[in-house]
């Protein structure tokens, strides 16, 4: 059985489409766990009406604790051998689950990552992937939890509950690190339909997001068992962009972290890009005049 986990937070405009796409799956041996993370809109009513009289669907309500907590709740409540995640504002094509099961039976593997690109190595031992992770990371399939199917018994590290950004990347990396002797298969597919919603968390810049981005870089830098230089470069540039964007909005440094963790700060400086390193040093030393000039320079170079 496949356990499909859908975290929900204020998605009343999209959740019915998501549920309908799951209902119509050609593969029927699944359960769908819908975890409502304290929605304040009409999501609950739409969900309960949509799943009425369908025993394959289970609705769970919890107070708002973030998407990581919602996914962890779904994992713990699941009874399937396999786990897959779908976001509430996305949907899947008719044979999405069937394709996964066909590939699982074909390769006898322990996890499948789907990709829009053709990957020559259909199946590899996870240790081989980890040993050359920088080159694998170019395929851009390690960040989201969707487009994948995991063996539940092998999930040893859950989603980081303090993060609402990058938590999926850490989950995927930890799954690989925890199961290095297992096999991973790659499936070419475009049957997961991702919706780039403008007001989604990933498109929002705030003090919280900047703080969590700093924490994410720190946590990635501590993963000594896997190559992380490519990830850290990308995450560093992403954080630089967020800081620049937030400054453009606020035109102030009131959001400066007054008491940054020194160990965390030192680790980040040792692993981040030069662009971010300069920014953080000026930020940490509160050299705001020079930081403004640096922002103008980056904007002139169109470096964000």
TrEMBL record:
Superkingdom of origin organism: Bacteria
Residue ranges constituting the Glycosyltransferase 2-like domain according to the UniProt record: 3-137
A Pfam short name: Glycos_transf_2
One MF term in the entry's GO annotations: hexosyltransferase activity
Matches recorded under SUPFAM superfamilies: Nucleotide-diphospho-sugar transferases (SSF53448)
Transmembrane segments annotated in the record for this chain: none
Cited InterPro entries: Glyco_trans_2-like, Nucleotide-diphossugar_trans
Entry-linked PANTHER family: GLYCOSYLTRANSFERASE, UDP-GLCNAC:BETAGAL BETA-1,3-N-ACETYLGLUCOSAMINYLTRANSFERASE-LIKE PROTEIN 1
Protein name in UniProt: Glycosyltransferase 2-like domain-containing protein
Lineage: Bacteria, Bacillati, Bacillota, Erysipelotrichia, Erysipelotrichales
């Amino acid at each position: 059985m496949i356990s499909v986990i859908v975290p929900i937070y204020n998605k009343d405009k999209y959740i019915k489409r998501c549920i309908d796409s799951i209902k119509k799956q050609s593969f029927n041996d699944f359960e769908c766990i819908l975890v409502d993370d304290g929605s304040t809109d009409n999501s609950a009513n739409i969900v309960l009406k949509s799943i009425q009289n369908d025993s394959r669907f289970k609705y769970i309500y919890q107070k708002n604790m973030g998407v990581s907590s919602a996914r962890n709740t779904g994992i713990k409540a699941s009874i399937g051998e396999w786990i897959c995640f779908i976001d509430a504002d996305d949907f899947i094509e008719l044979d999405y689950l069937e394709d996964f099961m066909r590939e699982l039976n074909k390769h006898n593997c322990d996890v499948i990552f789907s990709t829009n690109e053709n990957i020559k190595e259909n199946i590899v031992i996870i240790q081989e992937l980890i040993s050359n992770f920088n080159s694998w990371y170019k395929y851009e399939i390690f960040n989201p939890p969707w487009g994948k199917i995991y063996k539940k018994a092998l999930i040893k590290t859950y989603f980081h509950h303090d993060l609402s950004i990058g938590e999926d990347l850490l989950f995927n990396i930890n799954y690989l690190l925890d199961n290095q002797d297992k096999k991973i298969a790659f499936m070419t597919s475009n049957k997961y339909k991702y919706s780039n919603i403008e007001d989604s968390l990933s498109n929002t810049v705030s003090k919280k997001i900047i703080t969590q981005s700093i924490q994410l870089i720190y946590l990635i830098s501590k993963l000594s068992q896997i190559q992380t230089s490519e990830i850290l470069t990308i995450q560093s540039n992403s954080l630089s962009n967020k800081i620049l964007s937030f400054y453009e909005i606020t035109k102030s440094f009131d959001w400066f972290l007054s008491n940054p963790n020194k160990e965390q700060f030192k680790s980040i400086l040792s692993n981040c890009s030069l662009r971010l390193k300069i920014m953080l040093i000026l930020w940490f030393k509160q050299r705001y005049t020079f930081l403004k000039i640096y922002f103008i320079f980056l904007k002139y170079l169109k470096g964000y």
